[in-house]
Design a protein that fits this description.
Largest sheet: 5 strands, mixed
Number of helices: 5
Oligomer: single chain
Helix content: 40-55%
Distance between the termini: 26 Å
Number of strands: 5
Order of helices and strands: HHEHEEHHEE
Strand order of the largest sheet: 1-2-3-5-4
CATH superfamily: Histidine kinase-like ATPase, C-terminal domain
CATH class: Alpha Beta
CATH architecture: 2-Layer Sandwich
Number of domains: 1
Structural class: alpha+beta
């Protein structure tokens, strides 16, 4: 199902609303930042990016044991930079490379569909940082 706020107001407002909703659960605090995202993106791009960030936050809720999360979207020229970081338990590089859960498969396939780049940095006890670059036309 598609969130109404995504359809009506766009990606930035939809993710802000989603982050605000998660923050109310008190699982962790979320710092949401949207930079230069004033114009709407293509509909498919907005939907896929929303689902990617939603899945990353879902993974953090389930596995990271984090207390702080940063979600940042920044539009620069013809690309969208997405960063999702947490201060949770982290993963080994082997766990990052071998992640085959449905969430990671969905994230990777959506990034690939958008012809984007995915970089995951994590280490045990030091949290996880996911950086995605999506080209925009």
């Amino acid at each position: 199902m598609m969130p109404e706020v995504l359809i009506r107001f766009g990606l930035s407002e939809a993710l802000k609303s989603y982050c605000d909703h998660l923050a109310q659960s008190k699982i962790y605090t979320i710092d949401f930042q949207s930079i230069n995202l004033t114009d709407r993106l293509q509909k498919n791009t907005e939907i896929f990016v929303y689902r990617i960030v939603q899945e990353l936050l879902n993974n953090i809720s389930k596995h990271a044991q984090a207390t702080q999360v940063l979600v940042q979207l920044a539009r620069q020229a013809n690309e969208l930079n997405i960063t999702v970081e947490d201060n949770g338990i982290g993963m080994t590089s082997e766990e990052v490379n071998l992640s085959t859960g449905a969430g990671w498969i969905n994230i990777r396939s959506r990034v690939e569909y958008l012809k984007g780049e995915l970089d995951i940095q994590s280490s045990p006890g030091r949290g996880t940082s996911v950086h995605i670059i999506i080209p925009l036309s």
